[in-house]
Amino acid sequence: MPLDPRTKMVAGVAQLISERGVGATSVRELAKFTGAPLGSTYHYFPGGKEQLVAEAVGWVSGRLEKLLDKAADGGALAVLDAFIANWREFMITSDYEASCPVLAVATEDTATAGPATAVFKRWQGLLVTVLVQDGVSRPRAERLAWLIVGSLEGAVVMARSQRSPEPLEAVAEEIRGLIRDAVKP
Length: 185
Hints:
- This protein is mainly alpha-helical.
- Helices cover 78% and strands 0% of the residues.
- The protein contains nine helices and no strands.
- It starts with a helix and ends with a helix.
- Keywords: DNA-binding, Transcription, Transcription regulation.
- GO terms for molecular function: DNA binding.
- This is TetR/AcrR family transcriptional regulator.
């Protein structure tokens, strides 16, 4: 299903951020990248680059959260597998030219990292919920969920730099073991 012009711009800025970072992504570059008139970007995004970045992070997160919500009925391991499959496909599709745009926003400028911070907290919260449903105590689930998010984000960076899914797969296998151990009665 084709994206409407506004959503196409949001998706475009997410792609630019994932490939080039926030600093190298401008409203002008977005217009060029998406083929949209420059005036349209200012019409749809009167808040400029800051609004674009926030919406791109929200768009990426929304897509991932829908995927993780669908997997949640299968428990924490199914959610982890959905998370990994998403990043694996994302990197392979981009030929390892792209990384997580949420991570890029979080690390480039802490003054504007608010949207990324909120996304990481939502991902952690989703993982906590499914881990608790699997029988993990809430305090352990909260720590384990942060470990999962942080480990996977780092593994994505390493996989991109090595142009290989190996770091992601290795980290995922270790996390699977931690989840299995945590949900044992």
